[in-house]
Write a structure and sequence with these properties.
With 531 residues, this protein is mainly α. Among the domains are: 116 residues, no CATH class; 121 residues; 90 residues, no CATH class. It is 65% helix and 4% strand. The protein is built from 25 helices and 4 strands. Strands 1, 2, 3 and 4 form a 4-stranded antiparallel sheet that branches. The relative contact order is 0.04.
Length: 531
């Protein structure tokens, strides 16, 4: 950290200069230098010159930032203007005020926005963009999307139902616009309309995160995202990708570009863009040349410095998906070892596709690889992971591996394991599970206890013994009453087994063991177990 923290106005001055003059590649390289700890010996000279040493591969560079007249800032490298070493020093200085990675994101958004505005202004000056007054089959997908935007320009959320209302309005207004087009273009039109809805609800979610209605808006966005996924699945059931690529190559090219943009949308939100990307590529049947071109594009993006690990992870997952589509599971697994964070939810789409295609061995192979991830997953992911395991083991000759997995995941896997043992009539193991996890008969379904009792009443004896002892040791009147209630059931089991003498020895021993617990002795007397 800095020995002297820069005043906010000085820090803002540096940020504004970067926004006005810095190039994006320079900022990204500067972030890389800062992030790997290459900035050192930071000093404030003469009260207005911030200088430091920045270690490169072969040389150490000395940027000096003038906090009064930025044009006088300099560095001993060969780059004119703002260099990566100067940018790294700004990120270092900002670490006293906030998170430098967020500053990088802010700078990138500002610079990208300025460039977009400049390009848009130049385009308007060169050729004013005419509004799209009507949709036509001969129009390009970009024109369709412009028409969608024009139709819902300025649409904003005003209450908790607006997201759902927007979704309904889009399909009521635009859903049938392509009804008289060729069937293949109708399918392509619906695909772009679904992607438009997903982009809009993602935007709604981002714009309203600080709104007092954010909770309702987020729920509405998730609901619409789910509905859009269902529509997407319907569209892709018999999507004519081959016919489109042959008859409408320009339409197909624009569609592929639109799909490609989704892979770098890494922000958390209601739309899982990486899943959209992988799902569409798994359902489309593009030429090998197109697939190879897309893989090269992803590889080039991966080579660029990424400010957020999640972006890099997304690119790795996308490339691994192409390996999977080629049946190269080992190559995919090897690639995914580079992931910064492995999340079980990132593999839903992979596991679902194996299940749909009945590739049970592949499913099992990936579940084994994901087992360490499942152990640390949040409960929702853990539950879904157990469901995948259940389905995979239905198609195996033996359930030994399933048993081992469930045991290794205890206590989180208790409900799945207990249910499986009951279904497979392994009643002794079921009772052992309850004993090991400390579950009492009071917390078990009566129907399950009756099933075990009908099979062998003796199996339930240790379960009730443990529960009674546990209740007594809680040493309060309510727990004593519970113990007496369970003693009645235990007595019935002993009687059913014809072990009268064993029962009498047990109750006498219990009375003697807890003779000093007056309240418990009173409950025993009330139940007529002792005199």
């Amino acid at each position: 950290m800095l020995k002297i923290k820069l005043p906010k106005n000085r820090m803002q001055f540096l940020i504004e200069e970067l926004e006005k003059q810095a190039e994006l590649p320079v900022l990204e390289r500067g972030w890389e230098y800062y992030h790997r700890g290459s900035v050192g010996n930071v000093n404030l000279v003469q009260g207005h010159i911030l200088e430091a040493d920045v270690r490169g591969k072969n040389h150490t560079f000395h940027p000096a930032l003038n906090l009064e007249t930025f044009s006088k800032s300099e560095c001993n490298c060969s780059k004119e203007g703002i260099c990566r070493h100067m940018a790294s020093l700004v990120f270092y200085a900002y670490s006293s005020h906030g998170r430098p990675e967020l500053l990088l994101l802010q700078l990138k958004q500002t610079i990208a926005g300025r460039k977009r505005q400049g390009r848009a202004a130049a385009a308007r000056a060169a050729k004013p963009q005419e509004p799209v007054t009507a949709l036509a089959a001969e129009g390009m997908p970009k024109e369709w999307v412009r028409f969608f935007d024009q139709r819902f320009h300025g649409y904003s959320l005003s209450n908790q139902h607006s997201v759902e209302q927007f979704h309904q309005a889009v399909w009521e207004t635009l859903g049938d616009k392509a009804a008289d087009w060729p069937e293949e273009l109708q399918a392509l039109y619906r695909l772009h309309l679904i992607l438009y809805v997903l982009r809009k609800i993602d935007l709604f979610h981002q714009e309203n995160q600080s709104s007092y209605l954010s909770y309702y808006i987020e729920n509405g966005c998730k609901l619409v995202a789910g509905q859009s996924w269902e529509k997407l699945r319907e569209v892709m059931v018999a999507f004519p990708s081959d016919l489109l690529a042959e008859a409408y190559p320009k339409h197909w090219k624009e569609t592929a570009a639109a799909i490609g943009e989704t892979v770098v949308r890494s922000k958390a939100g209601p739309v899982h863009w990486l899943d959209v990307y992988r799902y569409l590529w798994s359902k489309l049947t593009p030429s090998p040349e197109r697939v190879e071109k897309e893989r090269r594009r992803l590889s080039l993006l991966l080579e660029q410095p990424q400010p957020f690990p999640r972006v890099k992870d997304g690119l790795l997952l996308a490339l691994a998906h192409f390996d999977l589509l080629d049946g190269e599971d080992q190559a995919a697994l090897q690639r995914l070892e580079e992931l910064h964070t492995k999340q079980f939810s990132d593999f839903y789409i992979v596991l679902d596709q194996f299940m749909e295609s009945g590739e049970w061995e592949r499913l099992l192979h990936w579940l084994r690889w994901l087992l360490p991830v499942l152990v640390k997953s949040k409960q929702e992911d853990f539950n879904k992971g157990c469901v995948y395991w259940v389905e995979a083991m239905k198609h195996q000759p033996s359930d030994e591996e399933w048993i081992r997995v469930m045991l290794s995941l205890l206590p989180r896997s208790y409900y799945y394991y207990a249910d499986y043992l009951m279904q497979t009539r392994r009643y002794r193991q079921w009772v052992d599970l309850q004993l090991a996890t400390g579950v009492t008969p009071a917390n078990l379904y009566t129907a399950e206890l009756r099933i075990v009792e009908a099979h062998d009443p003796a199996l339930l004896l240790p379960l009730f013994h443990q529960s009674i002892e546990k209740a007594i040791l809680e040493k309060n009147r309510d727990s004593y009453k519970l113990a007496i209630k369970q003693l009645k059931k235990l007595h019935a089991l002993y009687k059913q087994l014809g072990r009268t003498k064993a029962w009498e020895d047990f109750i006498a021993g219990l009375s003697a063991k807890y003779a000093r617990l007056r309240a418990f002795r009173e409950e025993l007397t009330k139940g007529q177990w002792t005199s």
